[in-house]
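Posting this for the archive.
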Amino acid sequence: MLDGYKIDMTNGNTTHDVIKIRYDVTITKAAGSVSVIGDGASFSETFTNVTYNSIIGYLGSQSLSPNTDTIPITIFQNSLLNAGAIFHILNPLLKVFLTNSYGLPIGAHFNTFEGYSNGQPATAITGAPNPIPIPTPTTIGQSAVDSFSLNKNNSNIFTLINQLPKNVIYNVTAISNPSGTIYSNFITDTSQFKIDMELDLPLEGTASDFMFQDTVAYSFNLNTDQVKSITIRAYINNDFPVDVGMRLAFVDSAYNVIDELINPMFQVIMPSASIGANGMVTSPTPSSHDFTIPSNVIPQLNKVKHILIGAVANTTNSGTTNVKIYDFYYLDVKIGVNVQLNLKF
C-alpha cells in the first residue's frame, strides 16, 4: 500500500499523463530449455482502491451537474392564500449564490428554472445569465464565490412572484473544461460546486381577499334559565395597514349554525391603521364593538360544540394602495363579557 505519496505524471515536465516505471529484469536460462524466436516477457500494472488528497493536471470534460432542487415558497403555501386572494409585492428579489472549489473552468446553464404550484402550469424564470458565471478558484483548497440577482428590472420575477407560486425548481447542466485541454486544473477530495438561492420578499405592496378559517371546539355549560342577556365587547387598536373583517359562528355537533355573533358576516371590525405617502403607518386606528347574543338564542347555547372563526383581510383602501409592513407593527385586542342574570332571592 502506498500512502501519502506524490505521483508526478509529467516525466520530468516533458509530457503529460505518464507514469514512468523502470523494471530491472534478470533472465536465467533453465537447464534443458531452448530459446526460440518470438520468446519474450510482458508486464502489466493495475492500480486499485485509489484515493487522493489532490490532483493537478488536465482532468478532462466531466459532468459536475448538481441534482435538481426545489425551493418551497412557504408564504404562498399558507392557508391564508385562498383561491381568490390577490397579492402584489413591489420589489421581489431572487439571489443566486455560486460556490466552486474545483480548480477548473466550468460551463453551466439552467435546464430548468421555473416557478410552479401543483396542478398549475409552470412559469419559466427569465433573465438568468447564460452561461452561468461559475467562478474558478486560483489556490488549491480554497473556494471561489460569485452571485447574481434577478429583480423586476432584469427578469420576469415580478410577474412570477405575483402569480403566487408555491415552489421554485431548478436543474443545471455543468461540465468541466468546456473550452478544451488545460493542464493547470486541480481538485481535492473535498472539492464541490454548488448553487444556492435566496428569495427576498419585502412586504411592500397590496393584498386583498386573504381569508383565514378555523374551527375551535367549545361548550358553554350555562344555566341558561338564569341568563337574561350576553354582550361581548371588543376593544381593538390596529397598527397594521390592513382592514380585517370577521365571522364568529356558534354551531352544534352537526355544524348547524345556532348564532352568527358578528352580523353581517365579515364586517370590518379591525379598520386599517393610517398610512403616509410612503406607505408606512403613521398612527394606529382604535375601534370598539359590541356583539350581543339575542335572548331567543341563549336557551340554545348549551347545544354549541364548536365556534367557526373566519377572517378576510385587505390592505388599506381595499387593497388598492401600496403599503409597507414591518415587524414593529402591533395589534392590541381586549375582550370583555357582560352577562345579565335573572336571579330570584
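Residues 147 and 198 are 11 Å apart (CA to CA). Helices lie at 157-161, 316-319.
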